[in-house]
Amino acid sequence: MAQFFKAKPNKAKQMSAKQQFNITQLDHLGAGVSEAQGKIVFVPGALPGETVTAQLIEQKKRFAKAKLLRIDVASNHRVASGCAFYGQCGGCDLQHLALPMQRENKQQALVNLLDKMGQAQALQLAEPLVGEAWGYRRKARLATQYQRDSKTLSLGFRALASNQVVAIDQCPVLAPALSQLIAPLTLCLNTLEAKRSLGHVELVAVESANMVVLRITQALSDADIARLRAFGVEHCVRLVLLDEHGHIDNLDGDTSLPYYRLDDGSQLGFAPGNFIQVNADVNRNMVKQAIEWLDIKPTERVLDLFCGVGNFTIALAKAGAQVVGVEGVPAMVATAKDNAVANGVSGVEFYHADLSADLSEQPWLGQIDKLLLDPARAGAFESLQWLKQMKPKAVLYVSCNPVSLARDSQQLLKQGYRLQKLGLIDMFPQTHHIEAMALFERD
Questions:
Q1: What is the pLDDT of residues 199-213, one digit of tens each?
Q2: How confident is the model at residue 10 (pLDDT cuts 50, 70, 90)?
Q3: 139-205+209-250, what's its fold?
Q4: 20 is in an annotated binding site
Q5: Cα Dmax for the chain
Q6: In terms of Cα–Cα distance, which of 331, 304, 306, 326 is closest to 315?
Q7: Does residue 311 have a known ligand-binding role?
Q8: Counting Cβ atoms within 10 Å, is residue 70 exposed (0-12), middle (13-18) or buried (19+)?
Q9: Residue 76 labelled as part of a binding site
Q10: Is 263 annotated as a binding residue?
């Protein structure tokens, strides 16, 4: 007799009956937190103080996830979204919560993570660094998607946990100059012969210029280049092509790097594709706060790891420190060196190094006075293994992931440091993303 395979039901993914949940708080990812049958239940979209009807969609040993179906008792802090695409686009996820409560919940989530996961309690909780609620984002990457049936190209952000692109014609968290470009740029791209082979689009608005960086996977025809040049002239933007080999073609012939400014007068250049902080106002205040918290004394030796194009390094040198900046991307190291020269800064050196690798042979590794860390989301765990060789009096940790900050805090505490100051950095209003600054000092 023939036998047919029959998949066993996945108990972890089984749907449950609808039930009510009382939401007590938000987790660090912005989901509502409740409890049922001895398990923590996460309900994205629900807010503290609300009673909601939801359905369990995933069950683990110690927690479960639920899909929000209905809000039975709404929070007084629930507000209407400020975006027509909210709930479809995967970018923002806290627009339904009033801004003051967004920040209060982010700060509480940060403190809780440091306490429970990092066993670190700050002696001083600083006021959050905040900026505008809308129109704050000076850089964004939009996805493209070609629709074969309609033969049109969509431009937008990906839906949550999906490869599907939600087509948009504006975005209220983008700088207005960038938001206003989306609709005409979509029209322009749809006139190109090569529209089926276009990659992502990066929009940038900095002091030097507004830019459109277009990722291409094949050379464009002269006609397509002419259309893009005309668009750049009409909309007063620099239009740049970036191919799959990293080659940059400035269609307006301007080969100078775009730059942004800090409050100390520094102008920091960067190449298309380089990382820069997307919230200009918050970044300026973040750099100022870092200098204040480190309390730089003349001739102190400061090490700036994950330095990028010199966002903190240049300011540290201007404050009188002897600074060494280390970055893992060679091209950004070269740009950082150019930025030091352009800003007339001496007493600063830059090196390229893989900061997750063995650092024992690095010429810059040695005793320092102070250490600044600004790592990516993975954190600085590997770099902190070399702390005994550095012996800094103070460590300033700028974090874009509170989970890795909490984990790395354990290493600092084990090596005799204490968490002196902790502050929320609200770099991304309307989203759950938590950034923070933490100052550790040696006992």
A1: 999 999 999 999 999
A2: low
A3: OB fold (Dihydrolipoamide Acetyltransferase, E2P) (2.40.50)
A4: no
A5: 86
A6: 304
A7: yes
A8: exposed
A9: no
A10: no
As annotated, the active-site residues are 400
C-beta separation of 299 from 274 below 8 A:
no
**DSSP strand pairing (152-158 vs 165-167):** antiparallel
Task: Consult the annotation and say whether 306 binds a ligand.
Answer: yes
Q: Which CATH number fits domain 103-132+279-442: 3.40.50.150, 3.40.50.450, 3.10.180.10, 3.30.2310.20?
A: 3.40.50.150
Cβ-contact 339, 309 below 8 angstroms: yes
**What is the pTM (predicted TM-score) of this model?**
0.93
Asked if residue 277 belongs to a known ligand binding site, the reply is yes
Question: What is the per-residue pLDDT across 85-133, written as a single tens digit (0 to 9) for each?
Answer: 999 999 999 999 999 999 999 999 999 999 999 899 999 999 999 999 9
pLDDT at 17: 80
Tokens of 289: 């706060």
- Provide the 3-class DSSP secondary structure of residue 214: strand
Nearest 10 degrees: Cα torsion 115, 119, 125, 126: -100
Alpha-carbon 243 to chain mean position:
24
What single-letter amino acid sits at 24?
A: T
Identify the CATH assignment for 11-78 out of 1.10.10.10, 3.40.190.10, 2.60.120.260, 2.40.50.140.
2.40.50.140
C-alpha neighbours within 13 Å on the C-beta side of residue 219: 2
